[in-house]
Amino acid sequence: PPGADTGPELIVHEGEEAGVVIQGEIEVTVDAAISVLRPGDGYLFDSRSPHRFRNIGGETCIVVSACTPPSF
Hints:
Mean pLDDT: 95
Strand order of the largest sheet: 4-1-6
Number of strands: 6
Helix content: under 10%
Distance between the termini: 21 Å
Low-confidence stretches: none
Oligomer: single chain
Structural class: mainly beta
Order of helices and strands: EEEEEE
Largest sheet: 3 strands, antiparallel
Strand content: over 45%
Number of helices: 0
């Protein structure tokens, strides 16, 4: 939902993450890089890099995401 995020602490774990935004917009932070993604945009990064997701839009954000190897 709008305003939701993964928390104030950056997340770090083994693996890689990739995803694509289906609806809404999301701010993705990886290390010091901050990107705002909209429908059709995607991401791929090494999950050992500190990262965070935050819905900065006014509507529910839908993201199809995959992590490898599965860690949760």
